[in-house]
Amino acid sequence: MSVLSCVSNELTSFSHLFQVSSKNKVLCGVLGSLVALEFCSVMLYYSRIRKAKLFTEFSNRTTTTIEKVMNGIFILTDTSLAGSLVVLLRKNRSGFSKTDTIVRKLIRFTISTSLPTAIMAFMIFVCQQVGRLSLCRG
Fold it and tell me: How far apart are CA 47 and CA 110, in angstroms?
């Protein structure tokens, strides 16, 4: 479930970025590729898990590698989208207090929705590196 919320969060952030960036094709193309890569890695991971008949089959080396790559992509995508949105929103400040207040609230919202998923992906990535644990093995 948490993976689905991460992917839906990325798609929401990407749609906001597309609107705020004045449809900048290069920026949206690069970040859209990251979101697509994230989605593909999730689908690959779940296709591997569905094939397993026993719980112990989840812990094979391929699945663990896919988990590491998937979490690395999550970290990269979350930080890239959030960073890009914050930079673009900061550029849209106008000097009028009401507009700047709205922009500050949007920046806080962007950070508060992207930061938890990035931190969680980073923590899982670190635990996998240090403890060589799999998400399925616990």
Answer: 31
The model carries a pTM of 0.75
Q: Using CA atoms, how far apart are residues 44 and 137, in angstroms rounded to an integer?
A: 18
Q: Do 31 and 81 touch, CB atoms closer than 8 A?
A: yes
Separation between Cα atoms, residue 85 and residue 17, nearest integer Å: 6
Number of C-alpha atoms within 13 angstroms, CB side, residue 123? 6
35 closest CA partner among 61, 16, 62, 63 = 16
Exposed/middle/buried for 65, CB within 10 Å: 0-12, 13-18, 19+? Answer: exposed
Q: What share of the chain is helix, strand, coil (3-state, %, to 5)?
A: 85, 0, 15
Smallest CA-to-CA distance from 115 within 87, 74, 73, 66 is with: 74
**What are the CA-CA distances from residue 50 to residues 47, 53, 54, 58 (Å)?**
5, 8, 10, 9
How many residues in the chain?
A: 138
Mean pLDDT by 10 residues, the chain (138 residues): 67 81 85 87 80 64 75 86 88 85 89 83 80 54
